[in-house]
Here is the input.
Amino acid sequence: MRIVLSSPLTDQEYYLKALAKFCPYADIRLWDAVKETSWQAEYALVWKPDNGLFLHQKELKAIFNLGAGIDALEKLPDLPKDTPLYKLRDAGMGQWMLEYILYGMIHFGRHFDRYQQYQSERRWQPELTTSLQEKSIGILGLGPLGQFVGDQLRQLGYNVAGWSRSAKKELSFDQFNGYENLDHFLSRSHFLVNLLPAKDETYHLLSEDRLMSLPRGAVVISVGRGSVIDEHALLVQLQTRHLRGALLDVFEHEPLSKEHPFWQQDNIVMTPHMAAPTQYEDAIKQILADILDIELDQGYRFL
Ligand code: NAP
Here is the structure.
């Protein structure tokens, strides 16, 4: 089996070592080492690769994206249209997402932002609060991460609902499907979690009107893709205090420019796209299992 790896922004050595350990008979090479040669791989493992890889590698049976978001990859002009593209499905990231979302719920729902301010003023000021279990959490996007997070929050006793275009089977929580039910879903979401990908159809899905349809005092937690939210509209809703706060990990343009008004907004907490980093070991396990499935489907026999 021949594998080419191009993931210049991550620890390529880790992937090389892990692949060599679990696939000792595979011929695994870094893209940089083969780009001037005629060597052809069967599988490509990539994260933000050089576009030249797809111009050069013409025998790929599948492409594996070393992350859950494929928007950057889909923008590469030479990405082959007829080669199956696999993305990471949870692969250990769900637990990280869950912790991040719980942090946002607790930070704003239990008023830790205010206590931080009071502490700086040496002020003893208890805040009245309702139990987080009395609030509704809305998971916008029911891919592998949305389903995992919704299920875990439900198991922790929270009131969860999800939204996606198509109905999902065997969810442990309520779901709303289709654009005709989106506004109703939003109107009951005290904590709205954006877990949608960047697509033409999801661009600014959370428009001014839709953000206004959230209950007064709602909190937005954005961990899918930033382009789903109209950032100007979000800022206005935070400034007018229609929204209680926002925990943002993803933005329409990353890295966020130093001039962006989000930096100055007191009820925004921001992180630099690190809510759920790729878990290398889980990623390798999933990719190798997928390769095995492909090989078996294509008639490979062990004996
Ligand atoms: P995903 O496969 O990226 O997205 C699945 C969801 O998106 C489903 O609800 C699907 O609806 C919906 N969807 C797909 N295309 C759509 C379209 N054209 N219009 C409307 N809805 C569409 O899910 P995931 O793997 O769980 O990932 C969720 C997001 O988290 C991704 O954007 C990923 O990049 C991001 N992410 C962020 C981090 C981080 O650190 N911040 C880490 C990992 C992942 P249907 O199923 O009904 O079609």
